Model the fold of this input.
Amino acid sequence: MHENYGSDKCDCNIIHEDVVNMVRKNMPKEEYLYDLAELFKVFGDTTRIKILYALFASEMCVCDIASLINMTQSAVSHQLRVLKQARLVKYRKEGKIVYYSLDDEHIKHIFDQGLMHITET
Amino acid sequence: MHENYGSDKCDCNIIHEDVVNMVRKNMPKEEYLYDLAELFKVFGDTTRIKILYALFASEMCVCDIASLINMTQSAVSHQLRVLKQARLVKYRKEGKIVYYSLDDEHIKHIFDQGLMHITET
DNA sequence: ATATCATATGAACAGTTATTCATATGTTCA
DNA sequence: TGAACATATGAATAACTGTTCATATGATAT
Done:
């Protein structure tokens, strides 16, 4: 009785057509969902999480960050580039030293909510 | 003058020792940071984001989810397992049909904050 | 019983990613 | 100018991840 509406990938039948249609109406734009996943991808790495938490406390230069989290300067520099591209950190130069700091107020809230999930029983 | 304190990986010198020590004191436990990254890793995939957004609107069976987001039943099932392991979704069985629903109230807040970052100018 | 359907799962493959290494850039200081 | 230092970056490698395919499981209905 039920037909498969417009999906070439799905290899099964829609069981609750009304529910699917209702949910489809409420889905955010595909583009937003993609961008959201991209953002969380950036958060999904221990090194980057450590860097961001460090910057919650203070702006820091690359060398200090590397020392703090016990990673090579190169690894930290690579990750800072990722964070910079995601518009999560910004930097200022002072001679040969580059200071990085946070560029977003939402991060802390996101992390706090994340920690609430983790620390639940 | 500056020495490298206890880090074997870092290949540079601590420039601001006081800052590093202060920041180190304020860092959350290594374990939390690891778990947090693991959580965000789960969010860092478009398919899983879509599934979670779908479940914001209603509980759904696997087949309906697959149809909605235009993925194979198998792919969806694999991702639901990941979400289940992360304690983000739960399920109930009704005959041969399995209904999945959200198992966490924090997710929506996390996503909303994430969207605020994305939709900023 | 057997055919059908919904779901789960293991293996394989392709694509992605984080770190390392070597090196380049640009600044400071002697 | 040249040595030392902070940072950036490209290439290579190893590890990880998501999808697909084939198949298994378990339930329903005839």
Remarks:
- Chain B has one domain: 17-119.
- Confidence is low (pLDDT under 50) at residues 1-6 of chain B.
